[in-house]
Structure formats: structure tokens, C-alpha cells
Amino acid sequence: MSSSETQLEEPVVTVLEVTDAALAKVLEVRSEEDNPEETGLRVTITGANGPEFSYDLSFEDISSAEQDDHIYKVDDLVVIIPKENLEDLSGATLDLPSNPMQGGLVIRNPNRPKMLEGEDIELSGTPGEKLQQLLDQHINPSLAAHGGYAELVKMEETVAHILMGGGCQGCAMSAATLRQGIEVMIAEAIPEITEIIDVTDHEAGENPFFE
Which CATH architecture group holds 127-198? Predict the structure, then answer.
């Protein structure tokens, strides 16, 4: 008996949820494979694209799964996730895009990459000066991949007021990026700053958050 068959017989935890619409789409595409019933969907995190993870979805023979892969079933679909991606995919959902014209699949993930991991961070001065350096040297270069930026509007003692601009203004993900991504980085790099206030006008811009 193969290791993948053994894992499928044991109670397993669903890491990446799959919506009904996404499941139907994946099964439709899988039906074109040579042996669809023996084919699973491998979901891998390949890196980071600014404040978001980047992914690779591919079909593979279930029997070819690695010994430490996490394998489970969603209805008739076998999902295969590498061990090293389990934590970062926990709580994520595979879905169809909100815009039906977009096509393909999307992964809605509450987790964010550690954007400062491995970076040599040297900050000096007041909390506000440190934050400006962090934005200029580390955060905005990453946000630039999405055509956006974060701007320090003002400091009130240990409270920072930040505005998300460019491609981030009016983006439905900008508030989540600020809360889950930038706030975490600031807390790690500048513990003196106790609160971040988002002053972005989400009703403005080409893609308003509220319409």
C-alpha cells in the first residue's frame, strides 16, 4: 500500500478549503487528464509577490506524493499540500474570482508572507523617523509590485497615521494588507509604535472599496 493511500485512510485536517464552484471547475479540468481518478491537485506556495503569497497549482499522480505531504479529500478531489506550506495555507480558500471575466482560480488567504524575513534592518532616530525609513527601504519596494505605496501622514506620540495610495487606494485588499501585513512588520521592527490608524479614503480611487 502506498504512503498516500495510507494517509488518505487516516483522519486528516482540511487545510485549504475549496468552494463548490472551485471544486466543479477543478474536477472539470481534471477530467481531461489521462487518469483523472488517480490524479490529485497539488497546491504549493512558490514565494511572495509583495504582501501576498504566490502559488502554483498543478495536477499530479497521487502515488507520486512525497512521504511528508499533507493529503486529504474534498469530495472527489484529492488535495496535496507540501509540509512546509501547511501553516501558511491554513485557513485559506480556493475559489473562483469575484469577477467572472477574470477566469482561473484564486486563493483567498488570511496569512501573509513575512516581508522582512532575511532583511538587514537598521533604523535610527525617533519612532516617526524609523517608520519613514522602514516604509522607504522595505515596505514600499514590496508594495510597488502592486502599483501602490504606504505613506506616513503624521505621528501622534506612539500612534502612526498611515495612508495607502496608488494601486492600494480603493483596493479591497488594502485594509487587510495594512492590518495583517504592514502592522505586523512595524510591530516587529519598531515596538515603540503602539497603534496604526488607517486614514485611507477607500471610497476614492479607480477601484473604490465601497460603491
Answer: 2-Layer Sandwich (3.30)
